[in-house]
């Protein structure tokens, strides 16, 4: 039977085991009989796979402006630091929900319901994120995944042995950050055809942001050994991030939205990259992590 506690829940299917915690509805383990794929929140970065909501990235001055009022909204939003409520806890599925409250409205003056539904099968894990507008005005929001994976996936491998292989050729420019805000100008992309050879030097300028991504899937692997593939639906951007100082993890992040452009100082509802969800409507997005070994 699945492990049961107020704080965590474990899923099992085939040879795979997953652990999710109520804090942030965060995936904190995905492993087969040999390999732990998820970064175990070491001192270099104390998270596993946070959910980014209601913003992705940073707002200028960490300030959200709406109808003449200013609210403090720090990087990536508050969902990752909020406790979700369990609404389903099964052997291979679980669902968690976060709804607006007095605490969230002090930061983000909108009504919402965010549902995170995990489903595990013998080949991988699906996460479906549903944002419902439970209020009477349009809901401006972004959402993203931020899963961190061990890099390398096996200790005897070198980081430079690994590459990302995209489902399609990725020839478009990419975006970079300064002080957490989006630089005005796009920059040449580092992908050669469909392949991005990984190295720590890629992340000297923070995350690589694919804001014109053609692919809906990417494979992370060396020439042999454990591999994983992330595919997504509903997300329009992709972030790839690590720390350039020897941190042994790689984040592959499906996003719907991105940081404020440098120089943007307007109302939150006018911020580029947001979804605008009508009252009584919802947006549903999902991504899947498949794992294996070759």
From TrEMBL:
InterPro entries tied to this protein: Aldose_1/G6P_1-epimerase, Gal_mutarotase_sf_dom, GH-type_carb-bd, LacX
Family matches, as Pfam families: Aldose_epim (PF01263)
A GO MF label: isomerase activity
Example GO biological process: carbohydrate metabolic process
CDD domains from the UniProt entry: Aldose_epim_lacX (cd09024)
Name this polypeptide is given: Galactose mutarotase
Organism: Bradyrhizobium shewense
Lineage: Bacteria, Pseudomonadati, Pseudomonadota, Alphaproteobacteria, Hyphomicrobiales
């Amino acid at each position: 039977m699945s492990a049961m506690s107020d704080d965590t829940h474990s899923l099992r299917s085939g040879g795979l085991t997953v652990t999710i915690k109520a804090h942030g509805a965060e995936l904190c383990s995905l492993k087969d009989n040999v390999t732990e794929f998820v970064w175990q929140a070491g001192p270099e970065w104390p998270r596993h796979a946070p959910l980014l909501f209601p913003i992705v990235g940073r707002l200028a001055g960490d300030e959200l402006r709406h109808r003449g009022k200013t609210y403090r909204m720090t990087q990536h939003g508050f969902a990752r630091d909020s406790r979700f409520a369990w609404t389903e806890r099964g052997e291979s599925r679980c669902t968690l929900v976060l709804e607006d409250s007095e605490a969230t409205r002090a930061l983000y003056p909108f009504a919402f319901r965010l549902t995170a539904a995990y489903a595990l099968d013998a080949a991988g894990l699906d996460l479906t994120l549903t944002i419902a507008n439970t209020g009477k005005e349009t809901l401006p929001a972004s959402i993203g995944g931020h899963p961190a994976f061990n890099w390398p996936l096996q200790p005897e491998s070198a980081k430079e042995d690994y590459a990302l292989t995209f489902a399609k050729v990725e020839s478009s420019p990419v975006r970079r950050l300064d002080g957490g805000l989006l630089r005005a100008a796009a920059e040449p992309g580092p992908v050669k055809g469909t392949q991005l050879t990984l190295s720590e030097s890629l992340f000297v300028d923070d995350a690589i942001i694919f804001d014109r991504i053609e692919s809906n899937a990417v494979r992370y692997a060396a020439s042999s050994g454990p591999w994983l593939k992330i595919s997504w639906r509903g997300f329009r951007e992709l972030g790839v991030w690590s720390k350039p100082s020897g941190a042994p993890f790689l984040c592959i992040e499906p996003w719907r939205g991105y940081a404020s452009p440098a120089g943007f100082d307007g109302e939150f509802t006018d911020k580029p990259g947001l979804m605008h969800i009508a009252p009584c409507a919802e947006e549903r997005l999902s991504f899947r992590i498949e794992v294996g070994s070759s």
